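Final report, Chapter 2: Outcomes

The project's central promise was a pipeline that accepts a single protein chain and returns its three-dimensional structure in a standardized token representation, suitable for archiving and comparison. That pipeline is now operational. To close this chapter, we reproduce one record exactly as it appears in the project archive, with the input sequence first and the structure output second.
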Amino acid sequence: MSYICATNVGIMKKTEKITNNKRPSSVVEEPLPLYRSVKAIPQVKVKDFTYTEFKKIADKTPFTQAEWSAILHISERTLQRYAKNNGSFAPINAERALQIDNVLKEGKLTFGKVESFYNWLKGGPYMLEGNLSFDSLCSYDGIQKVLTQLGRIQHGILA
């Protein structure tokens, strides 16, 4: 026998199991915490990430082509070549572009505009683990630090 109990905290599911003719034991699963709702975003396959998808991300930012090439670890000439023939990015570069898109969304959520986030990042903000800079977006660890600091700002923890 099973039943589901919905509460304002979450959903609890109770199931009873009968094993070897013993009394049924009750198992209650803990409710999952509900966080900010996330809209379902159609996921772009990393192997099919073309310059057109990159351009959609790049158009939302004040980043220069030189800054994008530093973030993606490719030359400016390669970016120009991808633009010319709508070339596909290598999976590691495509993944980095999608990570930066996520950072930009959080930056816009925190500061209201992407330009304000860009100016904040260019100003070298201080955080507990040291100063951030635009160069933080060039590594996975740096991106995580930027996301951590944005989360702290969103929750009112400014240190």
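Archive annotation: The CA atoms of residues 17 and 23 lie 9 Å apart.
This record, like all others produced under the grant, will remain available to the consortium after the project formally closes.
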